[in-house]
Amino acid sequence: MSAPTATAPRPTISVTGLVKSFTDPKRGTLNAVNDVSFDVFPGEVFGLLGPNGAGKTTTLRILATLLKPTSGTAVLNGFDIVRDPGRVRQQIGFLSGETGLYARLTPREILSFFGEMNGITGAPLKTRVADTMERFGITAFADVRTDKLSTGMKQKTAIARTVLHDPPILILDEPTSGLDVPTARTIEQCIVEAKQRGKCIVYSTHVMEEAEYLCDRIAVISDGSLKITGTMQQLREATGKQRLREIFLGLLGME
Amino acid sequence: MRINILKAIYKKEMTDLVRDRRTLISMVAVPLLVMPLMMVVMTRVVDRMETKAKDDAKTMSIAVRATDPAVAQALKKAGLIVSEQSGDVRTAVESKKATAGVEEVPGPTPTLRVFADDSNPGSRSSGDRIRIALNDWKEERVRQGLRASGVAESVLTPFQMQKVNVAPERKMAGMIWGSMLGYLLLLLMFSGGMYPVIDMTAGEKERKTLEAYLSSPAGRDEIVLGKILAAMTAIALTAALTLTSVVLSVRNGFSSKNPQVRSMMQSIPMDPHTVFLIALTLIPLIIFAASAMIAIAIHARSFKEGTSYLTPLILLVIFPAILGGMPGMELTPTLCLIPIFNASQLIRAIMLGEFSMAALGVTLAANLAYAAVAFFIAKRRFDNESVLFRS
Nearest residue on chain A to B207, judged by CA atoms? Predict the structure, then answer.
């Protein structure tokens, strides 16, 4: 009888040779994402860093099946984004910097709607919505129209909407953009909690301290291509720099 | 297509719509308040103008220049106020010193020239009264001549004529209503659907809610169908409220004081059979309107842009809708294929009670085909990322 061998963990997200081209009447064909590949594992926070227009949002939109890749693909929890986009969307919670909440609906109505969209109905939906609202401190303003809520309250509702159906993957596109420190802190706590629950998180941000604090691995993207991928330690070793800000600027040639 | 998802989308879209002030105004306030108010104001203005014209004809004087004093006497006998003139009668009417006038032109057979300003209802009415009075006087003089010559007066009336209208009152009412109801319904269906459609397409882009929507497990076809169903509800509601408020306004007396017109207007043929046929005619067009407007409005990035995209469509609807309501047009198999026009014609024929089952069938089939094409295009638009994420 042979001794059991340790097997390598299977990635929850596997991105292979992703390319996205756009045709601009003035500038011709542009590669917004150019041959991007990476894996993300369960319980891991993967940070995507890059300047404006680097290709972060396009990459995350492709993973969320909002955009179709020109070539390459990604497999999310076993489902291919090109062949099975509907099933991929059942695996993800997607949050962008824009909260994307319906101003004329209440948090309870928004959560119920997205719960139903994810196939939760009847009594289980009511329970799930109530529990999620309790968890994020939404209950007190659950029946107030969203356009009457503060930015922090809206952001809490947006996060609750993203995790309501308990997806294995969270895709967060600059979720703290434009938020004050306490509100950004709520999102950071949510990410930490999700990581502890074994979720796979892909996360883009402009805030270096936040990335350094939250991410297990970081990728820097510029002009559509990944410049480097690794843990903070690996990034330090590869660049000879200590702080993420210096590493980032160095990779962009802006030391 | 999953029914639960479709129900959730429809419910969300409708909740969102009924809480939007602009949509409520175009969907409910305009049909319920503005349309009856417009009818009241218009009929009151027309009635007032008619009354004023009649009053003017009674109170303002008629300028007369004639050598025979019997001319003025004949007019006075008819109840007209006469002002004998030495100057030019035409100038007196033109300068509004007299409402109308009569001038004798001498000759072997004298001519009585009647002056009236036909652009002025009061002057036109006075002119008509002068002509009637002078005709009566002429007839009286002929009778006197016949009597003096010993000829029986009956030679003047060898026979009598009687005009009989074979159209029943329902048909007459159908003629009046049929020419405007189709136009009114079609126009308000498209204009009533405009704000809801923009709100759920370009409005979603503007409010940045589309990404979260599209990243949910709902399929694009489910999202499009849910939105089209909500738009159809808004359009149908606008049409139904408009029709109800117009009919109720007319039946409750907000119509002309003219008893004949009033009677015809109030006998609008709205029996269940007619209502059913009109609704049947409109259903494919409601689907077509919702799908076509969604396919166009999803291109817009903002509410403002959406309005400028859809306004030309509404202008395009007006022309065939008016043309279809015109009397004298026959719904041939070829004409049944022209969208909007065919429905307007069919509604007119239904109101007249003269439609054929073949015309109904071809019109419904043609409009259902157009609706299917519009739905397909709308779905394709929602699959097109350059349309959804246009910046």
Answer: A100
